[in-house]
Amino acid sequence: MYVQLAALLRSQIKDGTITKRLPSVKTLSQEYGVSHITAERALTTLKDEGLIAPVIGKGYYVAGT
C-alpha cells in the first residue's frame, strides 16, 4: 500500500500538483484510507529518493523549495 501512495505523491510532485508542503501523515491517512504507518513509510520512501525533505516541527516539503 505504501508503494502505491508513494507513487501517487511522486506523480503529484513531478506534475506540479504539490509544489511546497506535503499533507501531514494524519491527512494522508484520512484522505487515502491508509494507516498512519503506511503514510509514514510512503513519505520515508520519497525522502530516501531525495524528492522531499523533512523540516522538524513543520512537516515534509518538496526538496529544493
List the helices and strands and how they pair.
Elements: H1 2-14, H2 25-32, H3 36-48, E1 52-55, E2 59-62
Antiparallel strand pairs: 1-2
Helix pairs in contact: 1-3, 2-3
Proportion of residues in extended strands: 5-15%
* Mean pLDDT over the residues: 95
Shape: globular
Structural class: alpha+beta
The N- and C-terminal alpha carbons lie at a distance of 27 Å
Low-confidence parts, pLDDT < 50 over ≥5 residues?
A: none
Supply the number of helical segments. 3
- The beta-strand count equals 2
What composes the largest sheet?
2 strands, antiparallel
Q: What level of helicity do the residues show? A: 40-55%
- Rg over C-alpha atoms, rounded to the nearest angstrom: 11 Å
| Strand order, sheet with most strands | 1-2
Order of helices and strands: HHHEE
Would you summarize the structure shown here?
With 65 residues, the protein is α+β, with helices and mostly antiparallel strands. The protein is built from 3 helices and 2 strands, in the order H-H-H-E-E.
Brief descriptors of the model:
single chain, 65 residues, alpha+beta, two-stranded antiparallel ribbon
Q: What features would you describe in this structure?
A:
This protein is of the alpha+beta class and 65 residues long. The protein has three helices and two strands, in the order H-H-H-E-E. The chain has helices spanning 2-14, 25-32, 36-48, and strands at residues 52-55, 59-62. The chain has a two-stranded antiparallel ribbon. Helix 1 packs across helix 3 (36-48) and helix 2 crosses helix 3. The protein is globular, with a radius of gyration of 11 Å. The termini are far apart. 23% of the residues are buried. The mean pLDDT is 95.
